[in-house]
Recover the amino acids of this structure.
């Protein structure tokens, strides 16, 4: 909204300083500060409201150190994160941008699903919350909306660098010269980036070449399921990671900052030219959204760090996971998620391995056996006697390490 207001002032009245809103860097910085402020100010008010309403977490005794002390801690704090993301996005982005609209829909849609789950748990006193099938259906619907929009919306395009130009570095060229080094804009929803591979653009349609000459017409049959799988897995991975004070929040902030860098270089033709990567017109606006996301998660960490004054609940965990997944898909970096979201991945795998092995051994030996002392993985280390703050900090250090590797893939190929 402010973007349009100051653009009007600059265009009609030549208002001094109004032109600064044309710069993505300025609006991204403003989004960070605004989201951080909202999270800090609104967060305290929301926590006090939750305390008055006695919206506390019900904790099962699993024999973990300090676990029972969390009993009664306010939950549904994800509302803070959602508010701190949506408000700056509405203020500082171009709201006619397809990518921004998809991110807003993702935030509100998954926030609504997570809120329903928390509401049932807290107010209806049903510990199971929203049935798992309903959550999956909600994530599948989101995947359908994102993939169909990307596939059919004419504004979703890519510009790949001409193969003859790939070997030349041209940071000193003019913007016009940079444009000439890229091919014509083409509808590129089904193209993505393969890490560590030179000339690393990959077309999902190639997976069904065996169909025949008309295979590209059926590319959506591959693209849509892949998008649904990525959104569902990462969203649930973030949900499983949210088991310690500040773990999911801090990890998500690191991932968000990394995605912001990837969006910045992918949406800027000069950086895309220099790094020999796919140029994605109109994705620069996503830098502003992800800046708000980082500010929101860092601001929420103020209250969620050990000992937590509030938990995000499924309202927050499902939302931040979905945001990360959809954002990565929009900037065609979803194949980097196993690296960047490595924490989410191992947390999910630890649960899958634990459950599968327990069922297998119970069927074979008549007694279920476990590989980990407890899953998800962070509880395994807690069972081994490691203090919760140390586990969280070490996981976040690993998250930074994975983020650096992810950024390195821009040139290491």
């Amino acid at each position: 909204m402010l973007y349009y207001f100051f653009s009007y002032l600059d265009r009609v009245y030549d208002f001094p300083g109004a032109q600064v809103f044309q710069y993505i860097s300025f609006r991204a910085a403003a989004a960070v500060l605004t989201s951080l402020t909202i999270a800090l100010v609104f967060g305290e008010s929301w926590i006090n409201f939750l305390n008055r309403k006695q919206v506390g977490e019900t904790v099962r005794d699993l024999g973990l150190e300090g676990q029972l002390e969390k009993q009664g801690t306010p939950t549904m704090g994800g509302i803070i994160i959602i508010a701190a993301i949506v408000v700056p996005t509405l203020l500082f982005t171009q709201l006619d941008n397809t990518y921004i609209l998809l991110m807003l829909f993702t935030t509100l849609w998954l926030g609504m699903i997570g809120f329903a789950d928390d509401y049932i748990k807290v107010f209806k006193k049903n510990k199971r919350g929203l049935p798992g099938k309903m959550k999956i259906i909600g994530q599948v619907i989101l995947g359908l909306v994102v993939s169909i929009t990307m596939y059919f919306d004419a504004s979703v395009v890519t510009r790949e660098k001409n193969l003859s130009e790939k070997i030349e570095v041209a940071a000193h060229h003019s913007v016009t010269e940079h444009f000439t080094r890229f091919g014509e804009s083409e509808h590129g929803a089904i193209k993505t980036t393969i890490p560590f591979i030179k000339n690393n653009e990959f077309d999902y349609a190639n997976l069904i070449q065996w169909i025949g000459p008309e295979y590209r017409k059926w590319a959506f049959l591959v693209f849509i399921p892949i998008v649904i799988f990525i959104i569902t897995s990462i969203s649930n991975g973030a949900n499983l990671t949210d088991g310690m004070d500040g773990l999911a929040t801090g990890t998500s902030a690191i991932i968000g900052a990394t995605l912001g860098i990837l969006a910045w270089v992918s949406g800027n033709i000069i950086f895309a030219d220099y790094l020999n990567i796919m140029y994605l017109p109109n994705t620069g606006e996503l830098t502003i959204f992800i800046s708000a996301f980082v500010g929101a998660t860092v601001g929420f960490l103020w209250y969620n760090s050990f000992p937590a004054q509030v938990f995000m609940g499924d309202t927050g965990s499902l939302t931040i996971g979905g945001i990360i997944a959809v954002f990565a898909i929009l900037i065609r970096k979803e194949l980097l998620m196993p690296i960047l979201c490595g924490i989410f991945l191992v947390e999910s795998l630890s649960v899958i391995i634990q459950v599968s092995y327990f069922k297998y051994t119970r069927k074979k030996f008549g007694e279920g056996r476990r590989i980990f002392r407890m899953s998800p993985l962070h509880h395994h280390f807690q069972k081994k006697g490691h203090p919760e703050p140390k586990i969280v900090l070490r996981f976040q250090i690993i998250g930074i390490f994975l983020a650096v590797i992810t950024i390195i893939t821009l040139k290491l190929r």
